[in-house]
Design goal:
145 residues; elongated; single chain; mainly alpha
């Protein structure tokens, strides 16, 4: 494998590891969102309890934060769900890219560094989702009751 500027890279060396993190970091960043989406599907499929409904909804909006922008909880239609999921996937790809670039600033980077950076970025997105849900509940929730 040729490294930066054509200099050969030591197999499994620090530069090779940094290259691997930068190359696959965006796609690895999709894994938590996909796991939350799968968890949401499992919880909401044949749902008969409030607990499963709330947990499934929470997993859906944390895994796909753009779903709320398309009005998924209040509006119906599979096209809106698909668009929200695609926009969310692009968002998580971007988070993976930024996390991989931030993690590989160090000469000796590891996947642990990637996940630390990723979780900081994801925590900001998830905090924004929680604040948006609170704002929606306060502004719209009382009108619907």
């Amino acid at each position: 494998m040729a490294g930066i500027r054509g200099v050969p890279v030591v197999p499994n060396g620090p530069r090779a590891f940094r290259y691997r993190i930068r190359r696959f970091g965006a796609f690895v960043g999709l894994v938590p969102a996909a796991a939350l989406g799968l968890l949401s599907f499992v919880l909401l499929h044949h749902n008969t309890t409030t607990t499963r409904g709330v947990a499934g909804f929470a997993a859906a909006v944390l895994g796909g934060p753009a779903l709320m922008a398309f009005g998924v909880p209040l509006a119906s239609g599979s096209s809106k769900i698909v668009l929200g999921a695609l926009v969310s996937a692009v968002l998580w790809l971007g988070v993976g890219v930024v996390a991989s670039l931030r993690a590989t600033r160090s000469p000796v980077a590891s996947w642990r560094d990637f996940w630390r950076e990723y979780l900081w970025l994801a925590a900001g997105i998830w905090a924004g989702v929680v604040v948006a849900l609170i704002v929606v509940e306060v502004s719209v929730g009382r009108a619907l009751l």
